[in-house]
Amino acid sequence: MNTAKLITKAYFFGALSISFTHIITSAHKMGGEGYEPYIAPFMVDGVALLGMHMRNEKYDDRTNKIGLWAQSTAGLLSLAMNVHAAHSLFGMLLGIGVVVLFLVTEWMAGNIRLRTDSEAARNAAANAAAIADAEAAVAAANAWLSACTHPTTCSSAGQCETKRNAAAKRAKTTKRNARKAAAEKRVLEGMMN
Ligand SMILES: [Zn+2]
Fold first, then answer.
1. Predicted local distance difference test score (pLDDT) of residue 44
2. Domain extent listing, the chain
3. What is the DSSP letter of 55?
4. Signed CA dihedral, 100, 106, 107, 109: sign only
5. Spacing, Cα 161 to ligand 1 middle (Å)
6. In angstroms, what is the span from residue 177 Cα to ligand 1's centroid?
7. Which of 43, 21, 24, 44 shows the shortest CA–CA distance to 34?
8. Are 109 and 8 a contacting pair, CB within 8 Å?
9. Using an 8 Å Cβ cutoff, are 84 and 98 in contact?
10. Which residue of 59, 76, 84, 130 pairs with 63 in a disulfide if CB–CB is 3.0 to 4.6 A?
11. How far is the CA of 144 from the centre of ligand 1 (A)?
12. Residue 149 alpha carbon to ligand 1 centre in Å
C-alpha cells in the first residue's frame, strides 16, 4: 500500500472511531443503559460500512444498489446521532465534519492510483494493439494460402496465381477445341446427308 493510501485509511478509521464515540454518547443521552449504548455504533456505522463494501465494483448492480441504500440510510442516522451527541455548536460541526471526513476519505482511498498503474495500463493497451496489427498483417499475407486448392500446396502467392492462370488458360483452350470439333462434326454430317 502506498503512503497516500495509508494516510487516507488512517483518517478514515480515525473518523470512524470518533463517529463510534459520538454515537455511544448520543445513545447515553437518549437514556441507553449498561451495554446498550455500545451496540448502537455497530448498528449504525457498522451497517454503513457493510453498505459501503457492497458498493464495491466487484459486486453486481443489484448488490451495489442495496449497498448504496444501506450506506445512505445508516449514514443519515449516523449523521443525526453525531450531531445529537454534541453539547455545543462546535460539537455539532465536529459531528458533521466526522461523517463528511468518513465519506470523503473512503472516496479518496478508492481513487488513489500510482502513475505506474496508468502507465502499465497504457503500455498493455499499446502492446495489444500492436499484436492485433501484426496478426492482421500475417492473416492478410497468408490469405492466399487458405485459398490454395492445388494438390501440392504452393510456396508463395505468386506461384499460386501462376498455377491458377495456367489452369484457366487450359480450360479455355479445351473449351475452344471442343467447340471447333463440334462445328467440324456438323459440317461433315451436312456433307454426308
Ligand atoms: Zn496454389
1. 97
2. 3-109, 116-192
3. T
4. positive
5. 7
6. 26
7. 24
8. yes
9. no
10. 59
11. 8
12. 6
- DSSP 8-class letter at 151: S
DSSP code of residue 73? H
Nearest CA-CA partner of 83 in 18, 22, 155: 22
pLDDT in tens, 76-135: 999 999 999 999 999 999 999 999 999 899 889 888 888 877 788 888 999 999 999 999
Q: Where are the alpha helices (DSSP H) in the chain?
A: 3-29, 36-54, 61-84, 89-109, 115-141, 143-147, 157-192
What number is the average pLDDT over the span 52-80? 95
pLDDT per position as a tens digit, 143-193:
888 888 888 888 888 899 999 999 999 999 999 999 999 999 999 988 887
In the chain, the amino acid numbered 120 is A
Q: At what angle do helices 89-109 and 3-29 cross, to 10 degrees?
A: 140
Amino acid at 25: T
Grid cell 463510534 is found at 20
Q: What length is written for the chain?
A: 193
For residue 143, report the distance from its CA to the centre of ligand 1, in Å: 11
Q: Quick check: 40 and 24 in contact, CB under 8 A? A: yes
